Amino acid sequence: MIPRYSRPDMVAIWSPETKFRIWYEIEAHACDAQAKLGVIPSESAAAVWKAKDVEFDVARIDEIEAVTKHDVIAFLTHLAEIIGNDEARFVHQGMTSSDVLDTTFNVQLVRAADLLLADMDALLDALKRRAMEHKFTIRMGRSHGIHAEPTTMGLTLARFYAEMARNRDRLVAARAEVATGAISGAVGTFANIDPEVEEHVCAQMGLQPEPISTQVIPRDRHAMFFATLGVIASSVENIAIEIRHMQRTEVLEAEEFFSKGQKGSSAMPHKRNPVLTENLTGLARLVRMAVVPAMENVALWHERDISHSSVERMIGPDATVTLDFALARLTGVIDKLVVYPDHMMTNMNKFRGLIHSQRVLLALTQAGVSRETAYTLVQRNAMKVWEHGADFLDELLADADVRAALSEEAIRSKFDLEYHTKHVETIFARVFGA
Amino acid sequence: MIPRYSRPDMVAIWSPETKFRIWYEIEAHACDAQAKLGVIPSESAAAVWKAKDVEFDVARIDEIEAVTKHDVIAFLTHLAEIIGNDEARFVHQGMTSSDVLDTTFNVQLVRAADLLLADMDALLDALKRRAMEHKFTIRMGRSHGIHAEPTTMGLTLARFYAEMARNRDRLVAARAEVATGAISGAVGTFANIDPEVEEHVCAQMGLQPEPISTQVIPRDRHAMFFATLGVIASSVENIAIEIRHMQRTEVLEAEEFFSKGQKGSSAMPHKRNPVLTENLTGLARLVRMAVVPAMENVALWHERDISHSSVERMIGPDATVTLDFALARLTGVIDKLVVYPDHMMTNMNKFRGLIHSQRVLLALTQAGVSRETAYTLVQRNAMKVWEHGADFLDELLADADVRAALSEEAIRSKFDLEYHTKHVETIFARVFGA
Amino acid sequence: MIPRYSRPDMVAIWSPETKFRIWYEIEAHACDAQAKLGVIPSESAAAVWKAKDVEFDVARIDEIEAVTKHDVIAFLTHLAEIIGNDEARFVHQGMTSSDVLDTTFNVQLVRAADLLLADMDALLDALKRRAMEHKFTIRMGRSHGIHAEPTTMGLTLARFYAEMARNRDRLVAARAEVATGAISGAVGTFANIDPEVEEHVCAQMGLQPEPISTQVIPRDRHAMFFATLGVIASSVENIAIEIRHMQRTEVLEAEEFFSKGQKGSSAMPHKRNPVLTENLTGLARLVRMAVVPAMENVALWHERDISHSSVERMIGPDATVTLDFALARLTGVIDKLVVYPDHMMTNMNKFRGLIHSQRVLLALTQAGVSRETAYTLVQRNAMKVWEHGADFLDELLADADVRAALSEEAIRSKFDLEYHTKHVETIFARVFGA
Amino acid sequence: MIPRYSRPDMVAIWSPETKFRIWYEIEAHACDAQAKLGVIPSESAAAVWKAKDVEFDVARIDEIEAVTKHDVIAFLTHLAEIIGNDEARFVHQGMTSSDVLDTTFNVQLVRAADLLLADMDALLDALKRRAMEHKFTIRMGRSHGIHAEPTTMGLTLARFYAEMARNRDRLVAARAEVATGAISGAVGTFANIDPEVEEHVCAQMGLQPEPISTQVIPRDRHAMFFATLGVIASSVENIAIEIRHMQRTEVLEAEEFFSKGQKGSSAMPHKRNPVLTENLTGLARLVRMAVVPAMENVALWHERDISHSSVERMIGPDATVTLDFALARLTGVIDKLVVYPDHMMTNMNKFRGLIHSQRVLLALTQAGVSRETAYTLVQRNAMKVWEHGADFLDELLADADVRAALSEEAIRSKFDLEYHTKHVETIFARVFGA
């Protein structure tokens, strides 16, 4: 997590202030439940809420931790400084540090997921708007980087929309994976704390009780969460790569918006580089690198070990902050993408008429020519275009074998671009609804 | 995929025979749909079914491919050899190779997922059965590898059950991710093929039509699929690590079943090594290694490139075959795991009474001792056990400060093991249902 | 490891036949050393060499292993079947299975490294030859995919040469990493076997004795080996990506060689796709996926566990076979790459004269114009080229502010392409030697 | 990079202040070289050194960058503010941003490597000292987590020493990989800058000139660098896992030093958890996660793209800071590790005499018993120890078949522990030198 690739709302989720605030809420709600169960005095539970509006002193807590080398004890000591040692006596009773830490981590991940979902909604909006705008903007479809058959810019954007909509669904599922809390005490047996405390705290914090925890919430949940972020990041890369290709000098079908003050290069003033999508390509790698360690975190020793903790301190903020930034940046890129329909048409005509070869091939087959022969007929004329810059239509019209099978009109009819867009509406209906 | 870690049913899904069979079915169903649309003659479509019971000649297809360097064309050529060039003329019309290849890959992944789901059901059964058997088999709970408080072997197995049940749900979702097909023609525009063909073929093959494809089915779906396998493998590792710990000489709370003919070591005949779970630890790494390349496969150039193909030829079979083998092996391990309840009890008593320290701490707090003081009282007696092998109960009873707060009876009552199992039923109900 | 991406020499290294042959040699050499030390009878040692020319019966060994569930014991049993139980009595004395297995694995990796080094030599030859051929073939240099300043195709190939030469050095180092053997007995203490046995066996097998082993050879060596393969694979990807870019329709500065019988697409016969380099992009991902599991293999429990074994059974063959195939394929691609110097020149002129902007900027600065002003002057003329297809030279000549600083001759002199190639020889001398 | 896992010297390398300082030095040295070549006025070059002792104003540079969106231009603008626009006119002439950025990154990596080398030296010292101390401290050697044969704590530490010494050599090689600089101008042709500038700057900055750069230094170098850090981290994990095993309650052969004020658990005061080595296990995952993105960074488009940049901004600091912290932490753990030789002996005797089975097996073989029979004889007595807690020596002495082959004295002699340590000196000499 570095400022350059961070946005404040996501950063705030991971601040010490937020963390201590969540710790406090968990402890306070647990006291309420314990009081209701008659385990601790009601007044003690009530007293904890005295700190309701307190901003905890992060520096002071750090100071205590430097001595105790234990963060939760440090926080509880500081809390006692605020509400009084006597009232604080029953705080945390029957709980372990992990009850607080793990539940807090999940609260943070859930909040992070909520921000990411909002990011994705904005991205989906932008993709949809631009897809609609360019529904029938014809451009070359390419397989292997080679011209294939025409498609439209709208279809390109629609497929990114569909991919991101799938990612949104995955993120909703990933959010549910980590939306659990555990207040189950040492090794998770509830020996020293009633399950009702967990139920109450979870309900208050917007979580489900973890059905079976072992002092820690099982880490397969988090592995799934970070794996999902990795998939989303890979889709970000997918869109970024498309735009980088579109912007390369020889293609130039689109460009990232280039503001007036911006300088592309200290040496070559004419250059307009797709730096945002290049950056997104790198950010995708960064989000993805959390996936393997998150999976390595699953196999903890016995009821728990603490090896996952350092990993999560890093990847929790890093992966969510970076993905949040990336999604927002991508939304901006899509929103303001400068599209050049005329360049798209110019590119399509680079090999004069050649993109219609598939249709001619089919026409020949349907006219009774064997598949192999048809292939040969098309290929020999195509090669003239490819190698000598001939016009494909002219060559076909001049090829006696082709003409033996197809009339001039039949051949000419195969060079109609609208033929390729006839199902755009069908596909849009599938993607965006009727 | 190596024979040592393979089972035949999963291997069969990835055989050339199965692949060509699926290709054939897709082509034949497509012909039916094309005939119904009037695009090709009904007799031609019907003729394709002449090959219905043919075993395709893999060697012959390979031979043709050696010339054409194109696998689908090689297959179609071979198919024409069987049903006749004339009848074969309309096969594959308007389609691209990817229509066949991608739909086939997804059929294979769906079938693989079905086998894996069956594997997981067997594993869940074994885990549940053994969990019930050892519901109240008390053993030491450990955090950081250090004795913490008692738990039960049943809870250990129940948490693995819960984790694998989550994995089953994830796998159902992952199966749905890849249960799509595409027959959308070059660059996915349906220019040369009606969407109804896709609908018909998908329905016949048990798939959903891909809402928007671009000659290829988008690879974020597969990234999610393999990521899910990676999470499942991490859970396999989690269980394997637990058993390896239980079997280590100093712990010896359980052992993998050791058949009569088996030799543990060429040098040390007394050794019984947890080789199955060690093996599972390695297999988990192997399944997991598919995750990153599957994510790197998402960003294809424009409408498609073929870089994903070699990756999938390897990880498709490897990850599913290895995970299938691992799940079956793990099921066997769980099913026949030799559990030693008496060793569990012996281990628990290693530090005489020390595991009850938490309860004593709470009792002191509840008796009005401040948290800090109670902590000190417990710690000073605990250290005598730790360092000099004293008996914790004796020390507490002899500690005047402790006795000032708690009666002998009160102290003794804290050394009751059943205290720790009182919520086992609660947790089992959460995991297995009431 | 799949046949499609395999070459026979590398596959042979990993065959059961080779493996058993190496096992045999290790055991036989160990017997020699033991006999020399007087530990076993000389005749027994000599008898082992009776099997010198025997092809071991893999099926028979598998059969025995099915009973014993231990591969080395199975092999030794089979060996005894060949040389006689009596003579076989002293074979493997004082050794453990790992002595044989680990030393064998390293012999295989060393042989694999030797093949890979030969592959790299062939690749370096091809790169050098083509670099020399195109030393002064001018093409556009691009940063961010955007035209920057001219370079040459020779420089492109020379940088790949330099990168692969570095990789060759790395591979030599990686080979040395794994060129160790261990015959140190149970837990590596030499309690039951003299270190001289290890020395003798290693010398005979072309290895160094592992200074300290613990029944296994430490796995940091293998982690380094596979990490190095991962770096080499990433360089393969780097070259592949360059060629894919060069072949894309709008660029078309080079093409993979396209043989006569080859068909590019079942649907679009004119297409010539960079399928080899796309394939290499995928193969790079496959080689790279071995890196993380190899690193996860380092942390074995105590003196050894067997978790690394399944990983190595897979990645040992897979990573080396795939990389061998990839290097050979890449060599073929480079060797036969069809280069289009005229297209390179056409692309360079896409924005008429704009590539010389940097030189004009410098000339202005040197003529006393402030950096900021010079930048503005260049940029305003550059934008006319960019946006309206103007000729950069014409625009500059017509710009009074530019002309106030630079004469017509001075401006024209900045449009000379050879200016950019003046240090090509310097760089070639650095890369290939004087 | 988070404060909790950071040390100030390494953090300082990555501060904006250090970065700008290196940028400045590169620009100033380049001016010197340009002046010497007569390209720029000597006075201008001299003027740049006016800023020699200036602390650059990071906030001001950020402010400028917010407008220009280009960091190097922002810095140059700020530099001009300090030394005067007129004098600054020739700064950066003929260079590109990447000349500065890439050379700077490598300077930082080299400095980071130097710190890491110092860390490793300290670690090696600690390992050696403790290895010498426990050279003959006998402990159980374990394979598969199961008791095998005796070894010594010194050997354990010596193998970690040997592994880390290898890692030190690797790091020296990795440092050399990135110890290059490039001042080669746009797309690396030296068209606008003489190679002598690069030579001068590199010599001044302690680097070698990159033989062929393309505006960027090739990223295979950095991939190798981070891969090496990943291997080192895996070795850190290896040592950490060993200590965690030793500290687990049932083993308790060693403990991390536990300071007086430290609290192990908020709930269980007697617990002393191996939290440092658990933490190191997690930190190893964090360092390792940089490896794959660093490899993905190798394949940049054409002469360069900027996708690597965001990755390096994160993993450059993160991986080096985390590894620096981890190595220092590990050194502290080793340095102060509390070793329990008596517990080691107690553990060894858990299965009374069983660890000597291998020696008895060999003795039987040497006494003329067939290998198979000897194995059976040993195994049947071993099983009595294993299953019924018998004493292995007693059982053997009472076994008529064993006694038929071996005298009582012969059997008793096999139960001598020093037998296992007879080559400790040999191994120590190999590892630490004679």
Describe the structure.
By secondary structure, the first copy, chain A, is mainly α. The first copy, chain A, has 3 domains: 1-93, Fumarase/aspartase (N-terminal domain) (Fumarase C, Chain B, domain 1); 95-256 and 268-348, Up-down Bundle (Fumarase C, Chain A, domain 2); 354-414, Ribonucleotide Reductase Protein R1, domain 1, CATH 1.10.40. Chain A contains 20 helices and 6 strands. In chain A, the strands form 3 sheets. Chain A has a two-stranded antiparallel ribbon with strand order 1-2. In chain A, strands 3-4 form a two-stranded parallel ribbon. Chain A has a two-stranded antiparallel sheet with strand order 5-6. The longest helix of chain A is centred in the N-terminal third of the chain and has 37 residues, at 97-133. The mean pLDDT of chain A is 94. Chains in contact: A-B, A-C, A-D, B-C, B-D, C-D.
Write the layout of secondary structure elements.
Four copies of one chain form a homotetramer.
Chain A: H1 8-13, H2 16-36, H3 42-48, H4 58-68, H5 71-83, H6 85-88, H7 97-133, E1 138-143, E2 146-152, H8 153-178, E3 180-181, H9 195-205, E4 208-209, H10 220-247, E5 254-255, H11 275-288, H12 291-296, H13 307-336, E6 338-339, H14 341-348, H15 357-366, H16 371-388, H17 392-397, H18 400-405, H19 408-413, H20 424-432
Parallel strand pairs in A: 3-4
Antiparallel strand pairs in A: 1-2, 5-6
Helix pairs in contact in A: 2-3, 2-7, 2-9, 4-5, 7-8, 7-13, 8-10, 8-20, 10-11, 10-13, 11-13, 15-16
